[in-house]
Amino acid sequence: MKLIKTEDAVGQVLCHDITQIIKGVTKDAVFRKGHIITEEDIPVLLSVGKDHIYIWEKDDTILHENEAAQILYEMCKNDHMHPSDVKEGKIELIADCNGLLKVDKEKLKKVNSFGEMMIASRHGNTPVKAGDKLAGTRIIPLVIKKDKMERVKAICADAPIFTLKPFHKKKAAIITTGNEVYHGRIEDTFTPVIREKLAEYDTEVIFHETFDDDNQKITDGCLAAIEAGADLVICTGGMSVDPDDKTPLAIKNTGAEIISYGAPVLPGAMFLISYYNGNVPILGLPGCVMYAKRTIFDLVLPRIMADDKVTAEELAALGEGGLCLNCDHCIYPNCGFGKGW
């Protein structure tokens, strides 16, 4: 590209969009890349502060910002997402379905360390809805070396930076535990909370039983639920270290693989997650899920709905950001809670 005085630009081709900003009125391009400048355009260009402009000079060693932005988009895109129109070297990725956004943090960091380009996204492992903005890409200068873009492409040669895993319909089972509920001493206020949270997703509760603090009965209940077709089993209560709290033992005795009993999250430290036969989650939910606005259950549930298996290492990473501040006005997930993994 070549810098020239605006008054001398008649007949030249713009190599970038020219944006006009009027507070409270507009922020948009008055001229687009590729526009051939006319005599009538000169006063308009001067009115938006362009005493000098860049015009396009063909050079096979460089790429225009829009061409380079397309390369960044290709490095990011995956199934179930589409691009916005390219504008001023920027392309955004938009979700095509409800699902779980996954981000390859190492690749993202490498691209953003290259210089002269950027990709900004939502946090990974967060739920999104169809139409939500997932990420934005941009080239910083108006032009960039072609060989630099070729080098950065190699970072994503094996797989793109982003993945959007669609949510799947689940057949859920709720196992309510506790002598106090089983014998009618108190009302079961836990199950309605679980039903409400499951209702945020495409779920059908096909099994619900209440048991006293008998670990064998709870074990048998979990297995009966799976036999009935449940692909998600949720056990409520009985998760502390009191003598009558038998849920962790009951889940273990199903033969499920215990991924973790305990998580660095408040509320939710006594949470248990396991997988029966490798693919059916059996969860043990502590009492805080019944009364706290947001807990470990809210962090894990989207991953379960997307069939995205949770690991012990990932749970350990939740310590940073794992403290819910219990704000009077809850704005989750648009806050820092649970952004550690």
TrEMBL record:
InterPro entries: MoaB/Mog-like_dom_sf, MoaB/Mog_dom, MoeA-like. PANTHER family: MOLYBDOPTERIN BIOSYNTHESIS PROTEIN, MOLYBDOPTERIN MOLYBDENUMTRANSFERASE. Its EC number is 2.10.1.1. It catalyses: adenylyl-molybdopterin + molybdate = Mo-molybdopterin + AMP + H(+). SMART domains: MoCF_biosynth. Keywords: Magnesium, Metal-binding, Molybdenum, Molybdenum cofactor biosynthesis, Transferase. The lineage of its organism: Bacteria, Bacillati, Bacillota, Clostridia, Lachnospirales. Residues 173-306 form the MoaB/Mog domain. Catalyzes the insertion of molybdate into adenylated molybdopterin with the concomitant release of AMP. One of its GO terms (cellular component) is cytosol. One of its GO terms (biological process) is Mo-molybdopterin cofactor biosynthetic process. It comes from Roseburia intestinalis. Belongs to the MoeA family. It comes from the Bacteria. This is Molybdopterin molybdenumtransferase. It holds the Pfam family MoCF_biosynth. GO terms for molecular function: metal ion binding; molybdopterin molybdotransferase activity.
